[in-house]
Write a structure and sequence with these properties.
Helices cover about 60% and strands about 0% of the residues. The protein is an all-alpha fold and about 160 residues long.
């Protein structure tokens, strides 16, 4: 049950982050130097991709002067800098099962709080958009049933 809740929350966070380009998900590196099935990502590269995606969306939305103010507030609130840090794998392995579960639950609560804040920021910005702009926004953040980090069956790295 806890695993399912965790997967659901993580999937939701990833889906929202993919849409905004602002959710910084960092995979734990494997001994070989790269995360299993993922390319290692530097914060600079992620920031560049996020800024590029934001610029493209801003251009597509063709915002007016009042909307620009709302856009700037939205972008500032969507910054990834204050995302909760994932617990260290080596540290987690040293803990008892109940202590590990407690750490995971604390991480999930932090992630849920951040998602609640992002939802509020998105609702506020979305409300200032015209119906046509909302259509563009909706298309840009369309969720296709799985995140880019999951294979067709919904698991990391494809079929299991």
């Amino acid at each position: 049950m806890m695993k399912r809740i965790h997967k659901t929350l993580v999937s939701t966070l990833l889906a929202a982050g993919i849409g905004t380009g602002a959710l910084a998900v960092q995979a734990q590196p494997s001994p070989g130097g790269q995360a299993a099935g993922h390319h290692e990502r530097s914060p600079e590269k992620m920031r560049e991709r996020m800024e590029k995606r934001q610029a493209e969306l801003r251009a597509k939305l063709a915002l007016n002067a009042n909307q620009e103010i709302a856009w700037n507030a939205y972008v500032a609130r969507m910054r990834p800098g204050d995302m909760p840090q994932r617990p260290d794998r080596a540290e987690m392995e040293k803990l008892s099962v109940p202590d590990r579960m407690e750490k995971r639950l604390a991480f999930m609560k932090q992630a849920e709080q951040r998602m609640t804040e992002r939802l509020a920021a998105t609702r506020e910005f979305y409300a200032v958009l015209s119906p046509d702009q909302q259509k563009i926004f909706n298309e840009e953040f369309k969720f296709h049933g799985r995140s880019r980090h999951h294979g067709p069956d919904g698991h990391h790295g494809g079929a299991r």
